[in-house]
Structure formats: C-alpha cells, structure tokens
Q: What sequence folds into this?
C-alpha cells in the first residue's frame, strides 16, 4: 500500500513492463500509440482496508463532535495535512461521504454533494441495493467516475475555491 503506481493509458506499469506484458519503452517509441495518458497514483485499497479506515474515521468523527466547543457540532468536516485534505459530508440521515484530495484542489464541497446526488439516484433508487452494503451498480460507477473526472479537470484553485 505504501508506494506509488504508474499507469500508461490506464494500464498499470511494473518496472519496464505493463500489467499486460508490453514493454513500456517500445510502447512509448511507437508514434501510433500517441497521445499517451500517464498517471501517477497509489495502489487501490482493498475493501477491508477501506472499511478499516472508514471505521477509524467514524470514531474520530464521533469524538470530534463530542469534544467540539461549538454547541451542536456536526463533527469533522475536513482534516488537513501538508500532502492531502480529507473532506467529509454527513447527510441528514447520517451517511458520510469522504473525499481524499490534493490540498490545493478546489470545489470538493460541490463534488461531495454531487456524489450524494449520484448515490441517491443510482443506489437508493435501485431495488437490488441493500443499505450499508457495497454498491454494485454500473450506472452508479459510471456517473461517479464522470463526476470525479469533472472535478479533476477543474484542478487546483478551480471554481468553488
């Protein structure tokens, strides 16, 4: 979980080869492969790791709302570090949506509300979805991916900062 991941055109790179066995240098040397999309990121967390982190944050959220000097505090809305910001939006029904973003990324509040809208439209209205279970819905995934792409294109210091 600790090291960075390089992906070329959506395929993870491990050393000199892609996950599907292609040589990266040969791929980059072929003009027919351009334009090339290169992304750096982290390994995806497993479902268990996500649940563990969400559980830890929920505990911090509850403690924060109880210790807050502000009467009626709703809990932690943002944790900020030098390298990331964790934003949290809690709905009136208590569901929490979290986004981990670059500290310079703008428009996260509107992104969180858009994610809630997507959840309401494609998970809650799905008769096969059970509350508190992983969401397995292609339309949800597609719309969430689109919302994240729009937010990423807005970039640091974009609209809503």
A:
């Amino acid at each position: 979980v600790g090291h960075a991941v390089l992906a070329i055109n959506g395929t993870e790179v491990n050393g000199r080869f892609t996950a599907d066995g292609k040589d990266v240098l040969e791929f980059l040397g072929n003009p027919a492969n351009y334009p090339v999309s290169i992304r750096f990121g982290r390994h995806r967390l497993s479902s268990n790791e996500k649940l563990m982190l969400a559980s830890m944050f929920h505990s911090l959220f509850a403690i924060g709302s109880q210790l807050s000097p502000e009467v009626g505090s709703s809990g932690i809305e943002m944790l900020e570090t030098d390298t990331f910001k964790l934003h949290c939006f809690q709905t009136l029904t208590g569901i929490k949506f979290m986004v981990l973003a670059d500290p310079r990324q703008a428009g996260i509040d509107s992104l969180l509300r858009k994610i809630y809208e997507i959840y309401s439209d494609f998970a809650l209205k799905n008769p096969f979805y059970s509350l508190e279970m992983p969401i397995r819905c292609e339309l949800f995934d597609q719309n969430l991916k689109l919302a994240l792409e729009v937010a990423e294109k807005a970039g640091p210091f974009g609209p809503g900062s």
About this structure: The helical segments are 24-29, 47-67, 108-124, 138-154. The two ends are 31 Å apart (CA to CA). Residues 65 and 100 are 20 Å apart (CA to CA).
